[in-house]
Description:
Helix content: 40-55%
Strand order of the largest sheet: 2-1-3-4
Order of helices and strands: EHEEEHHHHHHHH
CATH architecture of the largest domain: Up-down Bundle
Largest sheet: 4 strands, mixed
Number of strands: 4
Oligomer: single chain
Amino acid sequence: MGLRLYDLAGAEAERRFSPYCWRTKLALTHKGLAFDTIPWRFNEKAVIAFSGQDRVPVLLDSDQVISDSWTIATYLEDTYPDRPSLFGGDAGRAVTRFVNAWADVVLVGGILRLVVTDIFAHLDEKDRAYFRETREKRLGAALETVSADRETNVLAFRKTLEPIRTVLASQPYFGGEAPAYADYAVFGCFQWARCISSFPLLLRDDPVWSWRDRLLSAFDGFAGKALGYSV
């Protein structure tokens, strides 16, 4: 059997919005590996219990079961060395680990507060109670309270992008002239928001906007064709 990926979906099976799953899908596409996706929802944890944990992405490669987007990326790099590199060598892998962690902390946390009610609105009905309970516990307030001041809070969020804005003002991708996994680690966060929310995270004159636009068009528009919003 070919590569198969359990991929988080909303109420609509084609609305795929996990930032971590997007990292994996772009890594697979970068490697030129054909794969099928299996829509998965929060209430279906038993479906992926075979992976030894309860989150997606989960990748099946013949008899191999790999979970966690970073672990999957390193698996793909090591298992398919004849395909285009995700990291550009060991040094690149080490630096990308930092970018990946930075995106997890700064971008995922920042974006969640801006689009959390939009995520809730797009969830399958069976997922809503779980999502509300877990996210309100994480955020320390009701979902509606968290996103109430997003028009103001997005200004502070945009300031946190200054490190990547500085890089992208002088080169098209974090990988240099072509995208690499560092790009997908960051882009997955913005694609998550685009797939689930019409709220504008970026301004058109921002280098980050232009970079996101290039990645939406990459690989024959793979990410850009996904169900989402024009923001």
